[in-house]
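Consider this today:
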Amino acid sequence: LEELYITAFRSSQGYTSFWNDCISSGLRGCIGRKRSCLREKVRSPTGDVLLDEALKHIKETQPPETVQNWIELLSGETWNPLKLHYQLRNVRERLAKNLVEKGVLTTEKQNFLLFDMTTHPLTNNNIKQRLIKKVQEAVLDKWVNDPHRMDKRLLALVYLAHASDVLENAFAPLLDEQYDLATKRVRQLLDLDPEVECMKANMNEILWAVVAAFTK
């Protein structure tokens, strides 16, 4: 969640794009990915406020929903008025607050013509640069050509950054040749069939269920 949020927002301004309507569902996909909270059997609270809120909804739902349905429900993308209460609200604002408490972000006021807006710039831009470098290396110098040998957290970040339309933030600084190679390898990941990958040894069922929700 936090890594996708940092990848998505504009470092100096301290907010995400007003025009990107993909980030919300991508963040809910992270919630589905984290600690396999979308499994049918849900255990005790985790201590993460956003995750526990999602777990509470899931535990109360019978019959169980699919992973794709839960991403839509948590995002508020449902026409069923009886399920609107499942939406996780103000996720970006709550993430920013958590990162301010951790000292990763700070809080400022910016004036936008007719109104003031609270923003959350990074306290140290090296934090985002390290994250961007990690994403770049995953599809360049440290590319292993096998998703099951990649770090699962990083693999999830690549998929969800693409689904959130913010992967370009990580690739924009690359040279043309590097950019072409990075996007080609991401396309290889996107062309994988999640149902086939899910059947392989040592797979992560929830990760591939979330990938399927965004790629199909």
In short: The radius of gyration is 18 Å. Confidence is low (pLDDT under 50) at residues 35-40. The beta strands are 108-112, 115-119.
